[in-house]
Amino acid sequence: MFNTYTKSVFIDGEWQDINEKLAEVIYNPATGKAITSVAYAGAEETKQAIHAALQAFPIWSEKTGRERASFLYKASQLMLEDAERLGNILTMEQGKPLREAVGEVKGAVQFLLWYAEEASRNYGEWLPSSTNAKRLVVMSQPVGVIGAITPWNFPSSMITRKLAPALAAGCTAVLKPAPETPLSAIEIMKIFERAGLPKGVVNLVTGDAEAIGKQLLTHKEVRLLTFTGSTAVGKHLMRESAEHVKKLSLELGGHAPSIVFPDANLAKAASLVLASKFRNNGQTCICTNRLFVHESVVADFIQLLKQKISKFQIGDGLEDGTTIGPLINEQACKKVEGHVQNAVEKGAVIEYGGERWHKQGFSHCYFNPTILSNITEDMKIMHEETFGPVLPVQPFSDETEVITKANDTDYGLAAYVFTENTSTAIRVSEKLDYGIVGVNDVFPATPEAPFGGVKQSGLGKEGGHHGMEEFMEKKLISFGMN
Ligand code: ADP
After folding, report:
1. Nearest alpha-carbon partner for 106 in 91, 132, 134, 86
2. What GO molecular-function term can you cite, just one (predicted)?
3. Which residue in the list 93, 171, 285, 351 is annotated as catalytic?
4. ipTM higher than threshold 0.95
């Protein structure tokens, strides 16, 4: 499907020839084998990409919302028609099971479609003035050129979640995908090309993250940086972007608690907790990281989890029936292993799994789905994001206690509550210090709703009309009357 080298830098509507000798090899995490290699570009290419985006900005931003929408519709159709092939590529570079990968591509399509619909709805306001001598109008305009930096855990949907609202708003962009997963980004650019996106409107640069990032941060014409990734890198971007008071939209780490109340539908809650924990092998920022179960049902709940987990099938995501793929790389596997070891040293009991999974012909980056009990607050797993398939379970006895524990983290992205009692659901949701609360629901990310965290989980929202507002500035026009 791929040659040994794949062009991956797209500037001003052209795929660039970059020094192939410096190419970066892309590996399939399931097998550890090379798929292809891509360009290792840096500051120079990023400057060119920013320049192209700047040139394209007047052309793109002056188009009507309807015109921008027709491009986004076309791109959504092309992507949907190609979802199976794109899903295959995504699984190959990222590792998630094919069904999840195709689901992600279809989710990515939904962002294009939703923002095609929103592109025409950039309403302004007419404000009643406090004096008859004035009339006040507020309009929204695109911020200008934006930089987008995306992670490897959702190589397709994180790109359209950022670019679709940016394009709908009238911005032009420079995209830097994660070094582990550039192939889905390349395919999305090809779709944009086929959909007739004018040259320079979206530019793609792969390579040296720091050098590319530095250009995006220090170029004063890049007005906004939208980033999904770790809190550590997010903080670095905040610091470095201060010089030009750049706008930032940051989706950072999480440490999601799931709380199971005694009146929950336990079988349904167990399935949902597992879906939340083991989706993408625990490698999402909204995956359950800590599970709190009421003491009266905790033993039964752990049994239910074990029964369901025993049906999971580990393997290459491209193989039929695989439900758990590899972790992205050795470093990720070591982190998971470290968290389990640390917990066990401090007294945790392994209820299920607990070690790596090995099979001939597969890479070493697999870890068995794991459940831990006898958890204490001093364990790393209770504070750091594991980003892997480990579920620590703790009993709780009352509502106030569990809310305090759930909020005891610097993160504040997603939290989940399982109960059949509406009053409990509302009371607890109100008190959870999180940007997103799922009540009997673990898939809250959807194009029509705002997604984003509080505390050190980020700034701003993606999705919904809120997501498009991030890419626009409000302008007041104050008319003095004759
Ligand atoms: P992870 O640890 O999950 O890979 P990162 O925050 O390191 O998360 O990476 C998310 C994205 O941020 C990737 O595209 C990565 O290349 C990029 N990135 C990492 N460091 C920098 C940096 N100094 N400047 C700009 N982008 C960076």
Report:
1. 86
2. oxidoreductase activity
3. 285
4. yes
